[in-house]
Structure formats: C-alpha cells, structure tokens
Specification:
46% helix, two-stranded antiparallel ribbon, three-stranded antiparallel β-sheet, 13 helices, elongated
Length: 392
C-alpha cells in the first residue's frame, strides 16, 4: 500500500501540465484518414494496435449495432450486485473487507453523469472487451485514516506500448516483439520527468487485458472480429444511399457522332439536371432516355445483406446468439430457444465478470489491503451462485 513516503505515487503522470505533449500526438493520429481499402486496414488491425484503436472508435461511432451489442454486454455485467467478500469469519478479515468496500464504493469520485464512482470505473475498464485492453492511471490521495484511490483516469490506448526496440510499434502473438512486457510510453510520446519509451510504474496504472494470447497484453479485441461485417454493412448503406439519390433510374443523354468536348459536357450536365431537378431545359438536339429496368431488385438485396447477414454477424460476435436481442434470424423463435440463447449471453457476461474481478483484485484491492490476500471483490448475481464466493 502506498505511504506518504512514496511521493511519486501521488503525482499524476498525465496531468494538465503534460497535456499538450501527449494530446498533440493523439490529435495527429486521429487526423489520419483511414484508407478506403478494407484489406489494407485489416492487415493493420492484426499488427498495428495504435491505428487499430482509431478504426475501433470509428466502428463504434458509426455502426449502431456494434455500439448497441457492446452496451448490452457491459450493462449486463454492471447490473449485477457488487460486494467485497471476506476470506473467513475472523474479525480481522471482516474489518478489512468493510474497509475495502467503503473505500471503493465511497471514495471514487469520477462520474459521467449517468454512472458514479466505482461503477464508472468498471464501465471504462470494460472497454477492453471491444478494444483488447483498457489502461487507466490510478490517482491516489490521502485521508486522515487511509490512503485511498480518488479516481482512475483512463487514457487512450495508443499512448502506450508493452515492448521496446525498433519493432516496438508492432504487435503479433506469433512474431517478434509480442508486446508481453511491462507498460511503457509509446516511442514518440514525451512527458515531463519520464524518458521516451520508459517503463511506467505498474502500481500507478490499471491494465485490463481481454483474453491475451501468448502473453500479448493488447488482448483479443472483439471489434476486430466484427470489422468485416461492419465494413460490408456500411459499404452497403453507402450504395443504397446512392440508389435512393438516383430517383427513378439512370438518365442517358445522346449527342451526335463526332460532337466536341463542349457539347459532350453539356449533354452530361443535362442528364445530371434531369436526375436532380424537377424542371430542366435542354437543347432540341439532345435525345434523352431514363433506364428503369436495372433497379427492380435492390430492395430485398439490401435487407438480406444489411439485416439478415451483417447485423446478425455483428451480434453473434458480441453476444454469441442473435436471439438474445433481435429475435431468431429467420424472424421466429420459441420461448425455449430464447431461454437457451439468454443463457449463452449470461455465460459470456459471467466470464467477463471473472476477468474484471481478477484485474480489480490484483491491481486495486490488494494494494489497498496492505498486501494481504484475504479479500476478494466480486459480482453477485441472483442466478449465478458461483460468483458470490469467487476468491483468488
């Protein structure tokens, strides 16, 4: 547990005096346009976690189904009751559990206007499900009877690295530099009193990795698995919007053989005017035709691509079964089947809870408990007794 002698523990590394240093880098990253080539972007998602964070944010902002499925998974976990469980009936263990629960539930002061304190911290920590990892700076403070965690300020993941060397910018579970080391500043980030690429003090940061493979602390982001159906969906919507803008059909304007460029341009402008305006004037020499036969099958194709395929694929990635939120894929289902799918969703939420419990116990609870390993933060669900007594 921190003491007053550990002066560095009370200093905020990413504080206001350093904001220009690291936010300038962040804005530069955000200003980069994501190329239209989805295959190139997909390759980047596999080994460039920093660019991947920008793509994941873009997906969650633009794709309502991605956002909704993620929110349902997070809210399902946060809806569970929370508790701190003493390891035994001994008076010391009970006192320590009461101290930890009071500190966690009563001293956290951050809020997003909807969630307060510990709940907001847990909500942001669950960002690891979508992006693979969530990283927050722990802000300690002193009270008359305790050192407590005032807040955990989560930071953009692209400010950090888990590796060093010339290839530290790349992440792969089966290649060199698997990003399995301690938390570091990303090369190129400069902060006061912290060397470029320096190892950051672990007790100052909360790191929640979602299902890391081969020790890769960037985890296994679900957003990456939803990338292709989300891209197909948005590309399909873009084409559908073009379809609706074209009105009744494609407009063709014919000009005489051997016409000059000026006459050809005027013919094109006339066709565009007919397609966009309710009233137009064109030369008598132009012969115009509206081609309607090419537009008879778009309606069902759009629904089958966007709703039946893309949205179902996205929900499957995050929730396991589409019936949990959207009815059966064919539009019908039984109550028995619905119950099965609901249990699938509940099992995923329980796994998320255990992952978060381990991160909170080891990085938040234990430092507050003076190093004793005899309490465990847990979630308690009415239909899940296994979580009630979960201890490390």
């Amino acid at each position: 547990m921190p003491t007053s002698k550990d002066e560095y523990i009370f200093k905020e590394i990413f504080d206001a005096s350093n904001i220009n240093s690291f936010m300038a880098f962040a804005y530069n990253l955000g200003a980069q346009a994501i190329p239209d080539d989805p295959s190139w972007v997909w390759q980047q998602l596999r080994f460039n976690p920093w660019l991947a964070m920008q793509v994941y944010d873009d997906m969650e902002e633009k794709d309502a189904m991605v956002f909704t499925a993620l929110e349902q998974r997070k809210d399902g976990l946060l809806a569970k009751d929370r508790m701190v469980k003493p390891a035994s009936d001994k008076r010391q263990d009970k006192k320590l559990a009461e101290f930890i629960e009071e500190t966690l539930e009563g001293y956290f002061d951050q809020s997003d206007g909807v969630r307060t304190g510990m709940e907001q911290f847990l909500y942001e920590a669950l960002d690891a499900i979508a992006k693979g990892v969530a990283i927050g700076e722990i802000i300690y403070a002193e009270a008359s009877d305790r050192v407590y965690i005032k807040t955990v300020k989560f930071r953009p993941q692209h400010l950090f690295s888990f590796s060093e060397g010339p290839l530290a910018a790349y992440s792969s579970g089966s290649y060199v530099y698997p990003q399995a080391g301690p938390l570091r500043l990303r090369p190129g980030i400069i902060l006061d009193n912290v060397d470029m690429g320096a190892v950051l003090p672990e007790k100052k940061f909360f790191v929640h990795s979602y299902r890391p493979r081969y020790g890769n602390r960037w985890g296994s982001p679900l957003d990456r698995k939803a990338y292709w159906p989300s891209w197909f969906k948005r590309a399909g919507v873009k084409n559908w919007l073009r379809y609706t803008e074209k009105g009744s059909g494609s407009v063709v304007t014919k000009y005489r053989q051997g016409a000059g460029e000026d006459e050809q341009d005027k013919a094109l402008q006339a066709a565009q005017a007919v397609n966009e305006e309710s009233a137009v004037a064109v030369p008598e020499s132009f012969l115009m035709e509206v081609m309607q036969h090419v537009r008879t099958s778009m309606g069902s194709t759009y629904r089958e691509l966007i709703d039946d395929f893309c949205n179902n694929e996205i929900v499957r990635v995050y929730l396991g079964q589409t019936l949990t939120t959207r009815g059966s894929e064919g539009g019908a289902g039984s109550r028995a089947l619905g119950g099965v799918h609901e249990r699938v969703s509940e099992s995923k939420i329980n796994v998320d809870a255990k992952s978060l419990i381990i991160a909170v116990n080891t990085q938040i609870v234990w430092p507050l408990a003076f190093g004793y390993v005899n309490v465990a933060y847990s979630f308690m669900g009415d239909e899940n007794p296994d979580l009630k007594i979960f201890r490390l």
